[in-house]
Automatic annotation (TrEMBL), chain A:
Transferase keyword on record: yes
CDD domains (UniProt xref): GST_C_Tau, GST_N_Tau
Residue span(s) of domain GST N-terminal: 2-81
Catalysed conversion reaction: RX + glutathione = an S-substituted glutathione + a halide anion + H(+)
Family indicated by similarity: Belongs to the GST superfamily. HSP26 family.
This enzyme's EC code(s): 2.5.1.18
GO terms, molecular function: glutathione transferase activity
Domain named GST C-terminal: residues: 86-206
Protein name per its UniProtKB record: Probable glutathione S-transferase
From TrEMBL, chain B:
Species in which this protein is naturally found: Salvia divinorum (Maria pastora)
Residue ranges constituting the GST C-terminal domain according to the UniProt record: 89-221
Subcellular location: Cytoplasm, Cytosol
Entry keywords, A to Z: Cytoplasm, Detoxification, Transferase
The name this protein goes by in its record: Glutathione S-transferase
Length: 212, 230
């Protein structure tokens, strides 16, 4: 009997995307909440290099880094595909995942927690990156087409966590006016019945933001 | 697989371009290398890679693919004849992907920082961090190789390509200053042996970067970039 565990953090978009991927494949798993301010021996044993969540444990063997985990889940378990089948489409999906992780999210997150000139610079950087995503989602319901795919998972922070955080700190960045297609996608993504059930409650997340 | 034209845009001294060459060699794919000066953001480069404006770009048929490790995975997916680049087991694939990301996100930035640090004491400190990261990669080699010759086992694979493309540069570092020996058989014996084997492996030896030629090219490129900024 295969044993699947997820070590994660309740508020983390990276943990949530792994859980969503497992649920989409119908995989049963045990969830272990990690206190990131007081990292457990279990986490340090299974992710000694980065010491981060999420960690997927499959029959005791650890897999780390959320995108590596998602590709692993797609390869091991039957069910709706997380990545496209066609080699070129797979390459494009991986390209956008990396773009979102490297160019969009860091600038967006840092912009929330900076001020003055530095914030303006980060805002510009984030907007430049988001313009490419805006273009990419035009004419598509989801980045994965009709169904949620790996790029939608990669961008989950942009759809849900970022608007709440930006609102909390009073930052205007991804407005409906400037990014109508991304705005619509974020709404579609968050209203999806399956996704809705698996997002952390807004008030709970805001409570955590207050501690930063 | 249809024999549509395959073009690789980039300069040979780039370890990222080199990764793609290694992958194409492994699959015996006929391709044309279109040399591009990475410091010149030509109209063609902007057309091929509008977002990052960087090499390598692989064009297969008329479709461009960017980002070296993504290209390598594409090559593995698109050409199913020939040896597998990624391991067949999903767990081994995850481990290979993890360490390849480590090379790009942790190891290479440290190498670059070492190259860019001029002050001796500061450079020495970065060098220590490079060695620490390289020791972690030695551990990765022991895990992944399972006692065989390469990260990929009996044959070279994804991680051999991801790190192997830097071996020429690791040698150059030592050639320029013996105090900066990264491939050290006393500290990382497995990786020192592995690096040697790459140069004689039938699948990738023709693509491996010759450190002497690299040193020459590096000097030329540096001169070119100085001209561009004048």
């Amino acid at each position: 009997m295969a044993e699947v565990k997820v070590i994660g953090s309740w508020s983390s978009p990276y943990t949530r995307k792994v859980e969503m991927a497992l649920k989409m494949k119908g995989v049963e798993y045990d969830y272990i909440e990690e206190d990131l301010k007081n990292k457990s021996p279990l986490l340090l044993q299974h992710n000694p290099i980065h010491k981060k969540v999420p960690v997927l444990l499959h029959n005791g063997k650890p897999i780390v880094e959320s995108m590596v985990i998602l590709e692993y889940i797609d390869e091991v378990w039957e069910g709706p595909a997380i990545l496209p089948k066609d080699p070129y489409d797979r390459a494009m999906a991986r390209f956008w995942v990396k773009f979102i992780d490297d160019k969009c999210i860091p600038a967006m997150w840092k912009a929330c927690w900076s001020v003055g000139e530095e914030q303006e610079k980060l805002k510009e950087e984030a907007k430049e990156a988001l313009k490419y995503l805006e273009n990419e989602i035009k004419g598509k319901k989801l980045f994965g087409g009709d169904k949620i795919g790996i790029v939608d998972h990669a961008a989950n922070f942009i759809a849900y966590w970022f608007p709440i955080t930006a609102d909390f700190v009073g930052l205007r960045l991804m407005t409906e006016n400037e990014f109508p297609n991304l705005y619509r996608w974020a709404d579609d993504y968050c209203s999806d019945t399956f996704v809705k059930e698996n997002l952390p409650h807004k008030d709970g997340y805001i409570a955590i933001l207050k501690t930063i | 697989m249809a024999t549509s034209g395959v073009k690789l845009y980039g300069g040979r001294p780039s370890p990222y371009v080199n990764r793609v060459e290694m992958a194409l060699e492994m699959k015996s794919v006929d391709y044309e290398l279109v040399e591009m000066n990475p410091y010149e953001k030509s109209e063609l480069l902007i057309k091929l890679n509008p977002i990052h404006k960087k090499v390598p770009v692989l064009v297969h048929g008329d479709r461009p693919i960017c980002e070296s490790l993504i290209i390598v995975q594409y090559i593995d997916d698109a050409w199913t004849n020939g040896p597998s680049i990624l391991p067949t087991d999903p767990y081994d694939r995850a481990i290979a992907r993890f360490w390849a990301a480590f090379v790009d996100d942790k190891f290479f930035p440290l190498l670059r920082q070492m190259r860019d640090t001029k002050e001796e004491e500061a450079k020495r400190l970065v060098f220590e961090k490079v060695l620490e990261a390289f020791v972690l990669l030695e551990g990765a080699f022991i895990t992944c190789s399972k006692g065989k010759a390469f990260f990929g086992g009996d044959t070279v694979g994804y991680l051999d390509i991801a790190l192997g493309s830097f071996v020429g540069y690791l040698r150059v570092s030592e050639m320029m200053n013996a105090n900066y020996k990264i491939l050290d058989e006393t500290k990382t014996p497995c990786l020192a042996g592995w690096a040697e084997r790459l140069y004689s492996d039938s699948l990738v030896k023709d693509a491996m970067l010759d450190p002497h030629k690299l040193l020459e090219s590096l000097t030329k490129l540096q001169a070119l970039s100085k001209t561009d900024s004048d």
